[in-house]
Amino acid sequence: MVNIKVQVEGLSVWYRDKQILRDICILIPEKKITAVMGPSGCGKTTFLKSLNRLIEIHEGFKVYGKVLLDGKNIYDPDVDPMDIRARIGMVFQKPNPFPHLSIYDNVVVGLKLRGITDKKYLDRIVRETLEKVGLWDEVKDRLRSSAAKLSGGQQQRLCIARALALNPEVLLLDEPTSALDPLAAAKIENLLVDLKKEYTIIIVTHNIQQAARISDYAAFLYMGRLIEFGETKDIFTNPKNELTEKYVEGKIG
Amino acid sequence: MRPSLRSLTDKFYTAFAIFAFLILIIPLLHIILSIIINGIKRLDLELITSPPKSLLGSGGGILHAIVGTAMVVFIAMLISLPLGFFVGLYLAEFAKGKFAHFLRTLISVLAGIPSIIAGVFAYTVIVVVYGFSALAGGFALGIIAIPYVARSTEEALGSVPMEIKEAGFSLGIERWKVVLFIDVGYAKSRIIAGFLLALARVIGETAPLLITILGGINIPSNIFSPANAIPLVIYQYALSPFRIWHNIAWSAALLLMIIVLVINLGVRYYLKIKAIY
Amino acid sequence: MVSVLGKIIRALKKILRMDPLEGLSLFFSVILIVVVLLFMGSMVLYSLPVFEKFGIKFIVGTEWNPRKDIFGALPFVWGTFITSTIAIVFAVAISYGAAYFIVEIAPPKLREFLSSVIELIVAIPSVIIGLWGIFYVVPLVRDFLRPLFLPLSFIPFLSGETSGYSLMAAIIVLTLMITPISTSFVKNALESVPIELKEAAYALGATRYEVFKIVSKPLTRRAALAGIILAYGRAVGETMAVVMVVGNTPNISLSLFNPGYTLAAVIANEFLEATSVLHISALIALGVILFAWSLAVNALAILIMKRVRIS
Predict the structure, then answer these.
(1) Model confidence over A128-158: pLDDT tens digits?
(2) In this structure, what DSSP letter does residue C68 have?
(3) Which subunits count as partners of chain C given 3+ CB pairs below 8 Å?
(4) Domain segments of chain B: what residues?
(5) Using the beta-carbon criterion (under 8 Å), do C214 and A59 form an inter-chain contact?
(6) Which of A93, C135, C137, C205 could form a disulfide with A86 if both were Cys (CB 3.0 to 4.6 A apart)?
(7) Around C286, how many Cα atoms within 13 Å sit in the side-chain half-sphere?
(8) Which CATH architecture has domain B63-276?
(9) B7 vs A114: CB contact, 8 Å cut-off?
(10) pLDDT in tens, A45-61
């Protein structure tokens, strides 16, 4: 029996007068990779941003329902969204390292914000996380140079390192390989499979093959509804819903 | 402890931002309100239809200044529109490399020159020849308006999509016809908007007029005679010791503000409608 | 010789083959260049007599007495410097706060409205601000600020009596005039920060202010600085609003409650009454100083603007 890390209960999200997500219920297992699939515009990104309350920085969104992290609703009034976002790391579709900061500072910026200034500790974290994402050997001689000079794939791994530096419990990834070439994408996929030993990973993707390759569990979202959720092998070999079947066969957008 | 300190810092800066915004906006609201309240009393038909009455008589208007402003601004537009338009057109369509860069820098320099300096220039080339005159004031304002016209024209023409230009060229017509009839035609509303904003910019200019048009009480008979202008009247009457004249200054200020704001708002509205197509 | 002639002939041929509209617009551009050269040339020419007579003493001289034909520009340089510098310091603080409010705090529906209000305020003629200054700022300085700062009058900047017409009044009026300009630049810069980078910072658990501190502010530093420098240039050259409230007295005083004078203000004030050649020359020479000053400021802004990185 697996542990449940994140439990979503009746999550509905509105953008102005349009409903983006409809009553989503899902149980995300700990230290597994859960893929959220669906055609573009189905609400995948909104779903992901609801899981760390990043949705709240955008105007016009309203969130109903519960998202329980280790059993505690992150939308409770006594919860500080800043803490939640530090516990739940996020990686975005387009690599977005801070272009004005060095590679080193990109990794430690989250820690520095939390008041950690011990240089030895920061040095260690930089080395550990960059090793974890397989970037250390490539950049160890130029930690002080700008992150903007890295290649797209390197930038994306740096963004993963930036998220990992805060030692999060959950890692959210929003189509992290869609802006990368196949080789760089493969590296990230291998990295994610490594990382699931330590982190609960939720990855949004519209790449069906990617979901099949790396995920343990898969969810299929369609027009704001959760159509099907289960172990990846079941979803792909024995879908219960006709829509899911069509989608995994590539017949829906 | 840390997180609470961080959220406290955040709250502090939020409070500071609100405070700064109020510091910015409250005096400006006060300016607008006080001009309306003080100016509305004498904003009547007499103000805009009659020349000033003898020194201490009540009533009287600023017709002489309205005529002067019209004259001066007309001369300014006569100078700045062709010059600014063609320089902007040259920059947008033809200029290349170092010369283009030089010309743009020159325009930036011209835009940054204090307006009083343009008055000094007009003094050295016009006043010393023709004396204090509407022409000298118009010349100074024209110099001030050139960079505005040039920039807005260049921007307007720069906004013409490549497809439109290509469509023009594919018709097999000469370059100047493409530029003049297709590019300028396409960007027409934005170019005109730029002209109007330049006009609004110079109509309130006072400093260069102070040292070029003399500013008496007569309605100027031609461009070589001394003239007055609405902003100059505001200045002169504001410094006078008489209550009646202060009131006229406030009313003239209200009138000027209405003109400037109407042009600005009108241009915004006009561009918004045009943007639909 | 022949090669020079050849070059000229080739250039002429090029002009003849030029598109007629290109030729026409080039012609106007050359006229503009000539006008600007004439501009600078005539100013320098007219200012020569006073520079010939006083030399460097014209710039560092502290006495300005047209009746005795003694001309020293330092009181005006000082007045311009002190008013514009203090005004820009205030303006920067207010601009960052107000821009942060408009971009990050105010509801988006209000944002566009507030932006247009600020842009419209920039369009208000300065003589109107000056008129308001005479009737509201001058009494404010005399009846409110002077008593308020009385306990601090041991500080040289805040000492002395005041009629209200003072450097302080000029600084207040200038701050009001240039703050909307710099706010507009800072606001546009902050708005240009890509949402992806802000999201990245929020996702690390940053607060709104921390996102500004680690992402928005450093990314927009150059663009904001260029705008602030342009606003400073406006403060240096502003004439009407200052001449109406500054008190127009050529002294070099530390106290902001004392009257002062600026370069632009003295040109505006004395030009019509100047009769001697030297007096006119001295006023135009002040114009040259002011010209050079704003030229330097604008050149700096252009240099910084050029290096603005759009990421």
Answers:
(1) 999 999 999 999 999 999 999 999 999 999 9
(2) G
(3) A, B
(4) 5-39, 63-276
(5) no
(6) C205
(7) 32
(8) Orthogonal Bundle (1.10)
(9) no
(10) 999 999 999 999 888 89
